[in-house]
Amino acid sequence: MNEQGCETFVSDCHVRAAVELVRHTWDPVVVSALRMGPTRRSVLLDRIAGVSDKVLTESLRRLASRGLVARTPQEAGRDAAVYELTPLGASFARGPLAHLAEWAAENQGALSSTA
Predict the structure, then answer these.
(1) pTM of the model
(2) Is the separation of the CB atoms in 30 and 62 below 8 Å?
(3) Which of 22, 27, 45, 75 is deepest in the core (most CB within 10 A)?
(4) In this model, does residue 85 exceed pLDDT 90?
């Protein structure tokens, strides 16, 4: 086993599984937005500039299917559910995602110059 946690980089490698959580552009943004606490979709749409209703719905479904987000139905209606991070989602937001954001902020100049 090497320091990345995989002897070889195969399909079930832990690194690949972790990268899969940030593969979709909006998923990390949605997780970050949910760090503020339980939130309705309409509030998330207002909070996340540039995301479409369709893309937000897809992202919330994907994150829920992976166990990072929980959907709690409320009263009847289109926007009648509240989304929140599960303990797994909160640990992802506090740990790897927070470190990735910190690294990106520290290296913003270098990242911008290579784009």
Answers:
(1) 0.81
(2) no
(3) 27
(4) yes
